[in-house]
Amino acid sequence: MNTLPIVAITMGDPASIGPEISVKALKDKKIYEICRPLITGDAGVFEKIITELGLDVKVNSIEKPADAGFAFGTIDVVDLKNVDTSKLEYGKIDAMCGEASFRSVEKAIQLALAGEVDATVTGPINKKSINEAGHHFAGHTEIYAHYTNTKKYAMLLVEDHINVIHVSTHVSLRQACDLVKKDRILEVIELLRNGLTSLGKTNLKIGVAGLNPHAGDSGLFGTEDDQEILPAVEEARSRGYDVEGPVPPDTMFAKAATGAYGGVVAMYHDQGHIPFKLAGFKWNAEKQQMESVKGVNITLGLPIIRTSVDHGTAFEIAGKGIASPDAMVLAIESAVQLANNKKMSNQ
């Protein structure tokens, strides 16, 4: 047990499904067979959700990872004591919840930088709540980059054959087009190549999406594909990478879904997220809710390991006991794999 990696899981927004999916994930005994998990957040929030949903598990409030028991059936929580559960309302934007979720992330980062945990996994946060609490970040990725002083980073989404990294994420579509530049694309290709290796992937062929319809069609529909994307692909090839592009995204993702690429580069947020979620999210039309939500978000380029569920707060079902922990389980498993591979590479 003492040789297993310690994984810090952030609470997520207390008003969201974050606490629920964390508890449900840690009710899976196989998690304790691959790692030593703990949660950063407010212990009272977890006691509340466990009581309300009748979940058969206990909470162990601790001050630091060294105090954790890591016993299956008891969830260790590095207790930040910053939520008034009498005022907690599920499904509501709230500065108190934004502050609590932000401090949970901050604590996990501090523990990882100090070497007290081997990897971090983040639950869903609400960006509006965090900003109302005075923390002006676009999302988890930007928080991690800020507190680790990381300049070159990118978001990688992993789900079966669809492993997609983004040139830009949380910016307007108009700004995203302006960010399609050779140097950034080349940087992201390199991050993807290193990320695939860290995940133990054997297929290292990379597809790079075009920006414009038909990848610009030789300049008929825009110049970015020929003037920025193609030169980046050619430079990557000169460095020995197996890269194809720019490929029209409607073709590229169809090929990626069959395993044609080990990973693909998307030019902006929705270009990558839509096919990724189409593959991993299963909607139940009869029940009008998500039946299964799979997929992992990994931030590449950081000095510490960060994986995450790739879904939102799901305020509409928070506290109802119907949230799926699938993505959280996958995120924890990915964090463990990255931690183990990192340990092996350092030996």
From TrEMBL:
Give the molecular function GO annotations. Answer: 4-hydroxythreonine-4-phosphate dehydrogenase activity
Annotated Gene3D superfamilies: Isopropylmalate Dehydrogenase
KW Lipid biosynthesis (keyword) present:
no
- Provide the E.C. number(s) assigned to this enzyme: 1.1.1.262
Instruction: Look at the named UniProt entry and state the broad enzyme category this protein falls under.
Output: oxidoreductase
Q: Which domain of life is it from?
A: Bacteria
Q: Which UniProt keywords apply?
A: Metal-binding, NAD, Oxidoreductase
NCBIfam families hit by this protein: pdxA (TIGR00557)
Name it: 4-hydroxythreonine-4-phosphate dehydrogenase PdxA
Organism the protein comes from: Niabella yanshanensis
Q: Which gene encodes it?
A: pdxA
